Amino acid sequence: MKKYLEVLSDLEQKMNHGQFVSGQKLPSVRNAAKHYGCSVSTITRAYAELENNHSVYSIAQSGYYVVEKQRNRPNVSESNRIDFASTSPDPSVFPYLDFKHSLDKALDTYKFDLFTCGDSKGMETLRHTLISHLAGEQVFAKVDWITITSGANRALEILAKMPFPNGNSVILVEQPSYDLYLRFLEAEGIPVCGISRSTAGIDLRELEEKFIHGGIKFFYTMPRYHNPLGTSYSADDRRIIARLASKYNVYIVEDDYMADLGEERGMDPIYSYNATSHVVYLKSFSKIIFPGLRLGVAVLPEKVIETFYEYQRYADTSQLSQAALEVYIQNGMYERHKRKISKQYAARIIVLNEAVKKHNAAGLLQISEVQSGVFIQFKMPQKVNLERLVERLAAMNIFVVSGKQFYLSGYMEREKFIRISISRAQPEQIEAGVRMIIEEVGREVKSPF
């Protein structure tokens, strides 16, 4: 890591932990250089970065001072709420000031251009920026293959409705899978069928049979940090899925919506293993920055690009949001925030795993082995009444999501589980929440009804 980044990180930690409080003057540039054992120019750069982030402000001939932070009013009802249901990022880690800086810089840079409708493919400068950004995920793409959409859901809707070059019509989905997309496919009357996926993975022989005989247009999959299971396919499974797609001319729609939340080795996407352009790669930025940003990226095979734009019809994303995201990525703020939120979520999952080990001695729950991401599956004994369990937990101010909604309406081979999300669950609440869930499951098992 560059020295100025080490200094910057240390100063930010001290401000976050109250060692430097609102209005306090930072050490002079020379004193700070002596303290950190670096040059004056390194400190100047770190202080300038803090000022750009609105963490400090400077007064000529005086020095740098810590910006006064807004104090959130305590909310009694919120503090008692244990939220294992929400999927959006924790508001306490939203990068408001960083993104405000990016918005200001975008306005200064692009001015009036930001208030036009723009290209339906997205801003060309952002798409060029995304070439190197995606390459970091082993997704190597040309600028013409990249399109910006108003969130990954918009791309999923277009892909579901448009024809594909293989001439097939059925969409294959994992079961369980992303509930909103399943409801969309059913509401639109789009041909869809399911294939079972568990925390252990997927039956690749069954997948091959469906590719051969199922008339599959594309296979929709979340290979990393699956919603609702939380698990990821092994590298071998991803490699085999890529090979089967090429062999049987079936497309893969790879929803890599949480690509930024883990750094495990061997976690390259299916896209990186496919040499025949049979993978549509999707990524969302809302899970890292703000849910309301509504920006996603699709990397399209050349054979489907023209049809995709025919069905998209018009630009549906804000030019200002795109320009701000471009600045946010280019100046390194995205990478820094990604690491921050990824570490925070990983720490919460560690707390949750330890709580399960402590309170699940009777083995009432089976949980997915997850070390990063957001979701974990709590698999229940068959005797448990899920609806009643969810209601009883809600009455105790513990909010979870029943696994039933993550299946197609007619799909019968269902596991009984609740989905746990740690994105809004505060670390100090997690153990108590897990303990009360296990206690309620125990009561359900003993119930005569």
Name the helicity range: 40-55%
> CATH topology of the largest domain, which one?
Aspartate Aminotransferase, domain 2
The gyration radius over C-alpha positions equals: 24 Å
Domain count: the total is 3
Uncertain runs: 71-77
The total of beta strands comes to 16
From the N-terminal CA to the C-terminal CA, the straight-line distance is 60 Å
Reported CATH architecture of the largest domain = 3-Layer(aba) Sandwich
Could you tell me the strand content as a percent range?
5-15%
Keywords: Aminotransferase, DNA-binding, Pyridoxal phosphate, Transcription, Transcription regulation, Transferase
Pfam families: Aminotran_1_2, GntR
Family: In the C-terminal section; belongs to the class-I pyridoxal-phosphate-dependent aminotransferase family.
Protein name: GntR family transcriptional regulator
Please give a structural write-up.
It is built from 15 helices and 16 strands. A hairpin with a 7-residue loop joins β12 (366-367) and β13 (375-379). Helix content is 42%, strand content 15%. α9 (204-213) runs parallel beside α10 (235-248). By secondary structure, the chain is an alpha/beta fold. The radius of gyration is 24 Å and the shape is globular. It has 3 domains: 3-66, Arc Repressor Mutant, subunit A, CATH 1.10.10; 98-332, Type I PLP-dependent aspartate aminotransferase-like (Major domain) (Aspartate Aminotransferase, domain 2, 3-Layer(aba) Sandwich); 336-446, Aspartate Aminotransferase, domain 1 (Alpha-Beta Complex), CATH 3.90.1150. InterPro entries: Aminotransferase_I/II_large, HTH_trans_reg/aminotransferase, PyrdxlP-dep_Trfase, PyrdxlP-dep_Trfase_major, Tscrpt_reg_HTH_GntR, WH-like_DNA-bd_sf, WH_DNA-bd_sf. One of its GO terms (molecular function) is DNA-binding transcription factor activity. This is GntR family transcriptional regulator.
